[in-house]
């Protein structure tokens, strides 16, 4: 099988995935904040298409990279293991999320897959640093760790999303700021009026206008923190991937295989 260096393009897919997934997390949190379960499901269904597209590309390239044994030149020995083991897990994780979103399935099982894949990425990055693989082993470790942490935080974020969709108005989720109440207590002056409609009255006996308060939804702080930690993790992963892309692209364009 002919070897083609596609590392730069793979880094582009990393950037795309981090930006898209991070944006979905941000929009999903904002929609949850407005207490709109239907809107959250709509966000997920819409995001399933681009996430699935990137996931399919990454999965295909990851399988291809695993089959190219070994990369040319002695100094690239086992680099297909370093890069493509984790890249294939990255692609399959995106596909799992895309399918779960499109079919309105529970996200936490895809999140559990992301949790394991994220831990694996951190372990591979750490060994890369210890062994001294690549020209910048520590920076490679940071790249792997950024995506690994994003995978770790994906699991609690999906658990929160599943809980919200399953219990959109439950007491742990919905915390109304007020309830609809009249401005005055109803007064029953005679027994004969007990069967008549009861209306609020003021001290002079005149009917008073009913003052109501619109219930205001408050998203629990633990949900907000969980979603924001996940979004920040995805942002850091996108920055790390952009940094590596900027460092990789000139050499790849100048000396293409």
Q: Brief description of this entry?
A:
Helices cover 66% and strands 0% of the residues.
What report would you give on this structure?
The protein folds into 2 domains: 7-175 and 221-254, Alpha Horseshoe (Serine Threonine Protein Phosphatase 5, Tetratricopeptide repeat); 179-214, no CATH class. Helix content is 66%, strand content 0%. The chain has 6 helices and no strands. The chain has helices at residues 7-33, 37-67, 79-102, 108-131, 137-166, 221-254. Helix 1 packs parallel to helix 5 and helix 1 (7-33) packs antiparallel against helix 6 (221-254). The model is unreliable at 170-195 (pLDDT under 50).
Runs with pLDDT <50, length 5+?
Answer: 170-195
Helix vs. strand class? mainly alpha
Report Rg. Answer: 27 Å
Number of domains: 2
Characteristics:
6 helices, 66% helix, elongated, 0% strand, 257 residues, mainly alpha, Serine Threonine Protein Phosphatase 5, Tetratricopeptide repeat
Give the helix/strand layout.
Layout: H1 7-33, H2 37-67, H3 79-102, H4 108-131, H5 137-166, H6 221-254
Helix pairs in contact: 1-2, 1-5, 1-6, 2-3, 3-4, 4-5, 5-6
